[in-house]
Design a protein that fits this description.
CATH superfamily of the largest domain: NAD(P)-binding Rossmann-like Domain
Shape: globular
Distance between the termini: 39 Å
Oligomer: single chain
Pfam family, one: 2-Hacid_dh_C
Strand order of the largest sheet: 8-7-6-9-10-11-12
Order of helices and strands: EHEEHEHEHHEHEHEHEHEHEHHEH
Organism: Candidatus Magasanikbacteria bacterium RIFOXYD2_FULL_41_14
Number of domains: 2
Protein name: Hydroxyacid dehydrogenase
CATH class of the largest domain: Alpha Beta
InterPro entries: D-isomer_2_OHA_DH_cat_dom (IPR006139), D-isomer_DH_CS (IPR029753), D-isomer_DH_CS1 (IPR029752), D-isomer_DH_NAD-bd (IPR006140), D-LDH-like (IPR058205), NAD(P)-bd_dom_sf (IPR036291)
Radius of gyration: 21 Å
Bound molecules: 1,4-dihydronicotinamide adenine dinucleotide
Keywords: NAD, Oxidoreductase
Structural class: alpha/beta
Largest sheet: 7 strands, parallel
Length: 342
């Protein structure tokens, strides 16, 4: 079957990816924008959008693109797209369901080890010319309990890695995978029990309405005193004010975060000063800055996906999604996802 001519607008594309995309999409008309999408840089002729997570696709944008027929997100998560608005216009939203669960799990482990071995403080000290280990005592992982919230692709890979460190593992998932638990050798429990008994809690859950502030003021207090919280999934899973309180009271020993709620506002002074933010977003931004500056945290800028191998797989799957759509076949459409059954 021949591919119909489509106009694909790519946003947030790094210079080194441009030639590769053009070479793989020669039958398409492509516009490649280095910046994220916004209401000012919309390509009105585009019938396909290809975007990364830092490009929020709002209802207003969807309605402003009269020819839009498909959205391809170069990510697993899709909470940056107004799915309801896309669905209303029968526009499929195609994601990259797998690009290597190891990539994000490895970053989560980097955050875990960074905190438990005080790597950031150690490196900083040596670079400042102080070659002295006093005050830098860390903690072994062997024999400690890791609580994995969300035992999907990434969570399961983290469990495999933690087994190599001889950790005990607890899992929580509303859809427990008993076969996985048997194969990898871990136990499922309730969220409350997991929080109460884990030395390290790592979140690997999508951000939905019902997972927003999954870790909140009420249940953060149930976490084991001195525990560490890791989040490489989505910022909205943790109430930032609850985390600030838990860190300031020393109830938690640390937090390793690759994602923050409303992270697009950080350093976006223009938006913050323009009055275009809600009061609650200003508060979130303040909490985020307290978290970033706290001595017991490591915050990375939504970078967990960003490995050479993963980017290649993400771009290739996105191109496959677009090519399939152009041939009349819809692949990886998240607007048609059905809730899982036990
Ligand atoms: P997945 O869909 O394979 O697994 C998610 C798991 O969470 C499923 O087993 C599901 O049953 C479970 N879950 C759903 N609601 C839950 C709840 N209330 N409590 C506990 N578990 C719940 O997804 P995958 O590939 O493991 O990715 C997880 C998340 O990681 C993505 O949704 C995405 O937001 C995030 N992510 C972050 C990246 C980064 O660069 N920081 C890169 C890729 C993904």
């Amino acid at each position: 079957m021949t591919i119909k001519k489509h106009t694909v607008a790519f946003y947030g594309i790094w210079p080194e990816m441009k030639d590769y995309i053009r070479s793989k999409m020669s039958e398409f008309h492509c516009t490649i924008h280095p910046e994220s999408i916004n209401t000012e840089n919309l390509n009105k002729n585009a019938d396909i959008l290809a975007i990364f997570v830092e490009s929020p696709v709002t209802k207003k944008m969807i309605n402003a693109l009269p020819k839009l027929k498909m959205i391809a997100t170069m990510s697993t998560g899709f909470d940056h797209i107004d799915l309801k608005a896309a669905k209303a216009k029968k526009i499929p939203v195609c994601n990259v369901p797998f690009y290597g669960e190891n990539t994000v799990a490895e970053h989560a482990f980097a955050l875990i080890l960074g905190l438990t071995r005080k790597l950031f403080q150690s490196v900083k000290r040596v670079k400042e010319g102080v070659y002295d280990f006093h005050g830098l005592r860390g903690m072994d992982l062997k024999g400690k309990t890791l609580g994995v919230v969300g035992t999907g692709h990434i969570g399961a890979h983290l469990i495999k890695m933690a087994k190599g460190f001889e950790m005990n593992i607890l899992g929580y998932d509303p859809y427990p995978n008993k076969e996985l638990a048997k194969t990898l050798g871990f136990k499922y429990t309730t969220l409350d029990k997991l929080l109460a008994t884990s030395d390290i809690v790592s979140l690997h859950v999508p951000l939905f309405k019902n997972t927003y502030h999954l870790i909140n003021k009420k249940n953060i207090k149930k976490m084991k005193p001195g525990a560490i919280l890791i989040n490489t999934a989505r910022g909205g899973l943790i109430d930032p004010e609850a985390l600030v309180m838990a860190l300031q009271s020393k109830h938690l020993a640390g937090a390793g975060l690759d994602v923050l709620e409303d992270e697009n506002l950080i350093q976006n002074e223009e938006l913050l000063m323009s009055g275009g933010c809600k009061e609650c977003q200003l508060k979130t931004n303040l909490m985020n800055n307290i978290i970033i500056d706290h001595p017991d945290t490591i915050v990375t800028p939504h970078n967990a996906f960003n490995s050479i191998e993963a980017i290649q797989r993400i771009v290739d799957t996105t191109i496959e999604n677009i090519r399939a759509f152009a041939k009349g076949e819809i692949k990886n459409d998240v607007t048609t996802l059905k809730p899982k059954k036990n």
